[in-house]
């Protein structure tokens, strides 16, 4: 299996280094030189030797310079701040020292108000230069957007991103002051949603402007990374989401969740995909089953020869089968066909030989931690409320009348029916969305009475939804446009948006090594786009669904209308195993390794052996799992959208994806195959029994869910359009009434 732990984000070092492209490396030295000039002008030797008072005085001088009217002078001050959040790497001898100084400086800068000042400068920079000089240049070659065109914006966003990524992570070594500053930082970001235009909405508007104005040059990768991390900070990650879900269920009078899906998946192991056509059909090669060889053929010619073992787990214990006649046969032990029985001495010697041989072959595992092996299925089965409604049909059949709405009375019903009802009630699961939909139905019937008593939440997801609501369709279209342009299967088109403006240098590479370096940088750049967009969309879907199901449905519908389903399928229509294992990175050029220690020259040999091991590229596997989870959320319990999976021939694409040996990845692929199995026909099910078995083994069972066959009444094709239109009407009524 691939070594991978799914989490909200990657480790801190990788998240910081991914905001920089390799072509930005020369700018690090410019920041350092600019800051050293500042220190020299103040007669200071270096930053680390300054007292706390002098450090504060220097930052106050920087703040005053940030407020001057001269743009070039103001940008020098931005460079000073950027060098501070980069950990004053020129004074560091190793990466750990740089990380410590970066964290200390970020807390100090936040305490003195730099974060808000940089936000204001960002707003001013966005509004002041809508068209860069290169867009109106007469020289066609200079019309190609490149890295220097977005220098000011990149520097400001880098400061904000580094501070957000640093302050949102807690450490056991944090002082009481740092803990308090972190809480103040979270509170400030949450209160920012009440502003006329919160920072998150500003970033979303930048994404829309980037997609609609081709002449407007923005460092879009940094914008999306900052947007994703801001949402992750104020909304919370998956652990926080699970706690919120339990609290909400308790408030609504529902039983608490018994499982944390992510924790369960982490304990699961991946399944081996079918390797040949014969395996797909469950037919052993050769046309007949290979049985155990006859006892006479299991002949070991010496003690060092292989001794067949029945008990391969408990190597130190004797199995009762070890004492039988057919386990060990040596040249000195007559065969059962030659001698009717073995003597007692021969049996004892054979057993001792087996034990000795096992002790030699079995390593000492006493020092290793015990692994808990989960027996049975990993998930508790679930039943829906409408699954219990079969009682009405059973009453009509056995008693001759029905009791509409009564799902508990079992008088006069046969005992097997009563037993099945107990099982369904035991595993009954009521989602919060079901109660929310029922509540909206009641409000629509009595808007003047029930509607006026409704108390609208003031939690963060609610305020975020209100701020995003007017432009959610445009935001979703813009995000998917960028995702399409960044996908590895995307082809260059004249009308596609340019996402490479903040990675291409001003002059094109002149050597083969420089070209190879730029190629890796471009691929890495695209992968980070996919990572940030997939993480951002999934985070919004999860939190909107927890807050109110119709908020989730509104966002989901606009993703579907913007062709999110075929786009994700197009993403997986590639060699996905190669995608998740290919590492487009050069370790010596990653920040801060590129500025600390001796600088190594990049040669052609530097690019060899990066994919030698079986450890996947974290960001690519993370992105792939996120896209699968998004696709699952869009099609779950939606027959019309499930049919889109069938129409776009997703089954072979998803089956190829099962070659990725990672449990969580495979689980969501199998879920997508499960929902469309009933539409794929008997021939497909018959020829894919390995896949069907994996679905039974890995995916949660829904009692009464006839997923493998087309007998489900809800799966009839004639009401697809009606289902989608009805959902849209409910969502529009909800938005019109509430907002």
UniProtKB/TrEMBL annotation:
Gene Ontology BP terms: cytoskeleton organization
Pfam families: DUF3402, N1221
Superkingdom as given in the UniProt entry: Eukaryota
Domain Far11/STRP N-terminal: 1-299
InterPro entries: Far11/STRP, Far11/STRP_C, Far11/STRP_N
Disordered: region residues: 275-299
Domain Far11/STRP C-terminal: 414-739
An example Gene Ontology CC term for this record: cytosol
PANTHER family for the chain: AT25231P (PTHR13239:SF4), PROTEIN REQUIRED FOR HYPHAL ANASTOMOSIS HAM-2 (PTHR13239)
Family per similarity comment: Belongs to the STRIP family.
Protein name: Far11/STRP C-terminal domain-containing protein
Organism, as annotated: Ciona savignyi
């Amino acid at each position: 299996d691939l070594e991978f732990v799914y989490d909200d984000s990657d480790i801190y070092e990788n998240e910081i280094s991914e905001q920089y492209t390799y072509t930005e490396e020369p700018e690090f030295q410019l920041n350092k030189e600019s800051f050293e000039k500042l220190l020299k002008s103040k007669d200071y030797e270096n930053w680390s030797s300054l007292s706390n008072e002098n450090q504060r005085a220097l930052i106050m001088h920087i703040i005053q310079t940030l407020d001057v009217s001269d743009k070039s002078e103001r940008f020098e001050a931005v460079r000073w701040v950027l060098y501070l959040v980069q950990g004053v790497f020129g004074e560091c001898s190793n990466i750990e020292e740089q990380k410590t100084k970066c964290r200390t400086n970020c807390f100090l800068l936040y305490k003195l108000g730099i974060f808000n000042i940089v936000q204001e400068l960002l707003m001013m920079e966005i509004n002041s230069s809508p068209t860069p000089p290169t867009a109106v240049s007469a020289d066609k070659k200079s019309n190609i957007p490149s890295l220097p065109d977005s220098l000011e914006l990149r520097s400001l966003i880098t400061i904000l991103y580094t501070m957000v990524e640093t302050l949102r992570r807690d450490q056991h070594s944090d002082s009481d002051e740092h803990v308090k500053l972190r809480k103040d930082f979270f509170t400030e970001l949450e209160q920012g949603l009440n502003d006329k235009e919160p920072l998150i909405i500003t970033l979303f508007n930048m994404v829309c402007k980037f997609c609609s104005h081709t002449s407007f040059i923005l460092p879009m990768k940094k914008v999306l990374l900052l947007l994703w991390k801001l949402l992750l900070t104020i909304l919370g990650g998956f652990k926080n989401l699970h706690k919120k879900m339990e609290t909400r269920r308790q408030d609504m009078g529902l039983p608490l969740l018994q499982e944390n899906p992510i924790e369960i998946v982490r304990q699961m192991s991946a399944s081996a995909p079918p390797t040949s056509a014969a395996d797909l059909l469950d037919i052993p090669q050769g046309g007949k089953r290979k049985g155990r060889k006859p006892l006479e053929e299991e002949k070991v010619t010496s003690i060092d020869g292989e001794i067949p073992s029945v008990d391969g787990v408990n190597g130190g214990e004797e199995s009762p089968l070890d004492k039988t006649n057919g386990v060990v046969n040596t040249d000195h032990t007559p065969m059962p066909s030659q001698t009717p029985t073995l003597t007692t001495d021969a049996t004892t010697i054979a057993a001792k030989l087996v034990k000795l041989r096992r002790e030699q072959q079995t390593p000492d595992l006493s020092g290793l931690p015990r692994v808990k092996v989960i027996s049975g299925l990993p998930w508790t089965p679930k039943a829906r409320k409408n699954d219990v409604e079969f009682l009405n049909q059973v009453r009509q059949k056995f008693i001759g009348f029905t009791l509409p709405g009564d799902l508990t009375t079992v008088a006069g019903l046969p005992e097997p029916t009563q037993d099945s009802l107990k099982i369904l009630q035991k595993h009954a699961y009521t989602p919060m969305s079901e109660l929310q939909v029922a509540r909206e139905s009641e409000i629509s019937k009595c808007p003047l009475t029930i509607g006026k008593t409704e108390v609208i939440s003031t939690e963060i997801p609610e305020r975020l939804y209100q701020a995003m609501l007017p432009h959610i369709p445009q935001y979703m279209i813009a995000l998917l446009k960028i995702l399409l342009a960044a996908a590895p299967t995307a082809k260059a088109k004249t009308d596609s948006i340019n996402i490479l403006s903040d990675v291409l240098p001003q002059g094109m590479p002149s050597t083969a090594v420089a070209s190879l370096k730029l190629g890796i940088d471009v691929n890495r750049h695209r992968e980070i786009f996919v990572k940030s967009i997939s993480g951002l969309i999934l985070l919004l879907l999860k939190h909107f669904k927890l807050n109110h199901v119709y908020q989730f449905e509104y966002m989901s519908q606009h993703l579907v209308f913007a062709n999110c389903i075929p786009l994700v399928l197009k993403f997986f229509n590639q060699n996905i195993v190669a995608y998740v294992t290919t590492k487009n990175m050069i370790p010596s050029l990653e920040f801060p390794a590129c500025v600390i220690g001796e600088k190594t020259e990049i040669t052609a040999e530097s690019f060899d052996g990066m994919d030698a091991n079986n450890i996947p590229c974290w960001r690519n596997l993370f992105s792939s799992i996120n896209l699968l989870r998004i696709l699952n959320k869009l099609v779950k319990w939606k027959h019309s959208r499930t049919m889109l999976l069938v129409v776009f021939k997703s089954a072979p694409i998803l089956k190829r994806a099962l070659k990725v040996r990672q449990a969580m990845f495979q689980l969501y692929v199998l879920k997508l195959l499960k929902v469309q199995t009933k539409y794929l026909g008997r021939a497909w099910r018959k020829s894919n029994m390995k896949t069907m078995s994996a679905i039974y083994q890995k995916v949660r069972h829904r009692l009464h869910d006839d997923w493998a066959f087309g007998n489900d009444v809800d799966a009839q094709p004639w009401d697809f359009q009606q289902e989608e239109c009805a959902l849209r009407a409910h969502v529009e009524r909800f938005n019109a009434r509430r907002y």
